[in-house]
User: Fold these one by one.
Assistant:
Number 1:
Amino acid sequence: MAFLEVCDLRKCFGETEVLKGVSFTMEKGEVISVIGSSGNGKTTLLRCLNFLETPDDGTITVGGKRVFPVATEEEKTGGNRLTFGLVFQNFNLFPQYNALRNVTLAMDIKDENELRAAGVKSKERKAILKQRKADNVQTATALLERVGLKDKLLNYPCELSGGQQQRVAIARALALSPDILCFDEPTSALDPELTGEVLKVIKGLIDEDRTIIIVTHEMGFARNVSDKIIFMADGVIEETGTPEEVFDAPKSEKTRAFFAKATEKE
Amino acid sequence: MDFITVTQSLFEGFAITCLIFLLTLVFALPLGLLISFCTMSKIKAIKGVFKVIVWVIRGVPLMLQLFIVYYLPGMLSPTGLNPFGKLDNFFYFNLGIDNGGALLATLIAFVINYAAYFSEIFRGGIESIPRGQYEAGKVLGMTKNQIFKKVVFMQVVKRIVPPMSNEIITLVKDTALARVIGVIEIIKVADMFASKAIIWPLFYTSVFYLVFVGLLTVLFGFIEKKLSYYKV
């Protein structure tokens, strides 16, 4: 059984069927790039995996455990949600917090929620959280150093460039150590000269054998780093395979047309 | 009538003005937030009811609302007694001013009226926060409450400071309406001098308002500056 199994995922927005039965599997440590032109369901697929959209039909299983559909709201917001991490196209950092706090906030809240769920008394909880908070600052500092922002810990998002903001967002997603990290067009909102620094950080994560799904328009990058390419068209997976198979010898007419257009632009 | 005596009397009235102002703020701000949640409710019935309430409260003159709150309960009660009348000795601030019942009625009317206005400011602020902020909170495992408290609230505060300061400055001067049901606030005190053909205290009251609003303006400027370290 594969680590991640997505089976026949469907999603409609009103009359528009955006996902028309998407199925794929993924092993631990694999990197999948999802490509295809805009409006073909790539982002919706990622949002379904992260529970930002509720699929109309289909199942999602991680490590043998069903994460969708689940019986209760609690299961959804509980541990399952943190199986996946998501880095947004527009970063979505919290503007009122500095880089460090952006990373530690969710860690602190996760600790608090866990202690609450375990029924630890308020007084005890405060004492434990104080210690954990200090640990979280250490962890977050290390993460921000790893994405090359050692000297920007106390800067606010409005003081950072797009590339720096996206790197903070990556550190923030890593902080909760998700099993599967998803990137939704992580460089699409960036100036061309800033995409390099973000792609370099993602490449670093890939070299650590993390399990990663990237929705991207960076064809060169997708080809270099992925174990598997998924080409989506019209709400279904039109073609899938190794980068060599998909890029060099596309079987589908739609895939060929997409690459022809993509290279035309370049 | 000498300047010092008039000033002293006006200060007594001004204390009531400040009291109405402060208590209205203390209760109307949280109530306004609550109403804003109701007008944004996903449950259509709640949303509809509160939209109508906000429409009525913003649509009827505050002065009329004062009359309604003060007189209607008495007219509806079987004894025909004004319940606020009994409270006339309840609030007695040792100011020689005995208008406690009317003061309570004023507070009720003001809190409801201002909460309605505040609720629309809160709603505007909350709805202006990009969806991505909620989504970021969600994927980071926060509950709805945690997202509101830790992520959204401070961004809303920053956005609503300018419209709030406008509304709060209006409140300072609206307190003068309370005299229509017999609250002896600063204008009413000056009016009592005027009825003895001494007009200048009436004009003099403007100094009190100007200084008060001046202080508020400085305070809001300070808050805006304090919040300028981030952009939303």
Number 2:
Amino acid sequence: MTAPLLAVDGLVKHFALSSENWFRRERPTVRAVDGVSFTLGAGETLGLVGESGCGKSTIGKLVLQLIPATAGAVRFEGRDLVDIPAAELRRLRREIQVVFQDPQGSLNPRMSVAEIVLEPLVAQGEKLTPALREYAGDLLERVGLTRAHATRHPHEFSGGQRQRIGIARAIAPKPKLIICDEAVSALDVSIQAQVINLLMDLQDEMGLSYLFIGHDLAVVRHVADRLAVMYLGRIVETGPKHTVYTAPRHPYTQALLASVPVSHPRQRRARVGVRGEIPSPLAPPPGCHFHPRCPFAQDICRNEAPPLREIAADHRVSCHFAETIVPAKG
Amino acid sequence: MSPLLSLRNVSVAFGGQPVVRDVSFDVASREIVGLVGESGSGKSVTALAILGLLPPTAEITGEIVFEGRDLPALGRRQMRRLRGAGIGMIFQEPMSSLNPVFTVGDQIIEAIRVHQRISRRAAADRAVELLEKVGIPAPRRRLEDYPHQMSGGMRQRVMIAIALSCSPRLLIADEPTTALDVTIQAQLLDLLAEVREEFGTAVVLITHNMGVIAEIADRVVVMYASRVVEEAGVFPLFDHPRHPYTRGLMASTPAMDMEAPRLVTIPGGTPTPGNLPPGCNFAPRCGYAIPPCAEGVPPMDAFADGQRAACIRARELGPAAPR
């Protein structure tokens, strides 16, 4: 792998909540993202997985610079987006686009499809010329819609078609990176498969990189090259897809994979899932965040946060006992 | 033995527009039957029809027989008594099924006392017992919690406790794990399986997720665009689906044990109830369709092991190879 397209380094995002107690000055903070680092190469897909509240969507927003980071760096082609001049950031926004989960909520109902699809270009100062409208038609055809759809409005489309419009908008400025934030999660299975195939075709044609944020591990397994598993604001395991899925070393990754429903009733088994629930991100447990639910927890886990360390080439795990824990079958 | 629940040619229409057509299936005592389909397939309306919870404007025809009684013929009072005592229910979003201004204890105790003449104190003891059964730690303390103080998984456990409070013979679960994280989903599926073992409750599990079906269903009813297209035991269904829609649905579901570069897709989208094609609803998206498919609604064809499929070519196509 050459120099990464995207390098996230020590990223931190704290959200201050309104204080529950009027007489106390300090406000409780949620450490939504708590020191996250990863890289993403050109043409590569990194699957970012984890359960609700683990911080995966916040990372997407931080990479897009939709919200300011509390600390850390987001380097895109070597430049740190966190502190570059606004004009330069604006120019770079062409290169980084996003597809959201809910196409209903992310498409302006008053705009025609052509206006929606061209919005990233118009926002960059381009004029809505006939040539540009022609380009909108090309984009719609590229995502499996027709040129005739350009003059229609979002409400005239099904959920799957709306997601295609969202994808056409994302590829309009010919970006290098697309953040897919639960991009196929709201779709019915038969439609989801169509959209996944479309995303993979576009990646091949345009050399796109995807930061694919999702909670469906089977879907992420299908699209990702590498994987990062998050728990309560931190990455607990990251590595090539095959390694993480077939030989997971973090007890949380193992539990997460064991919780995925089987694909045939023949595979039913007594589950080695995980007990308890995710603790509140307002008061994460000390030491390793996972220790209260971990079957292997020792004293050190309660006191010391394990660093994310490399245990094999490109395979990093944040567990004090990563070497001794037997990989559960993925 | 006669089935616990039996649907015969059930159709539901709103303003003359059918959304469920000609649905027939049985649920035996202690059986978990999965009712699977995508958005708009009619699976949730079928569930609400069983529960008698459709609005009065719904036009229901056909028979829904539970323990020998035809449910649509029951009066509102009788149906109310049956719901809870005979048939329990849980829905996708427990937050909207629980009352935010009462504690969960109040709500479980109320559910118990609506159907049983026991003191509040005895009902509270029973509530603690139920919360413990559904895996809520420190249940006596949790009685004092309001729904918003609990996580989504805990709230769904409370809903299951309420549903079990009167020992129903049948539980209707409509997408009970869809809003939950995968580790919590796994815990709740285990809980539903335990409930069946311990209380002998039959379950109609409505879901869009084939994985959930593969985990705990005994038998499966597949719906597409308002009709049942296939019905089978869970093993025959996953071993050799007969209906082209079922085959497509399974092939387009990404699986953990699959490394195919491309997913098989079903072309096009689901038709809306007002725009159903003539003949077989699935024909326009079906790779096996031939002209006669558009001519009439295909009848259910019966195969070995009680597998049934509504496809005129099912026999000729033979069983699909297992994945």
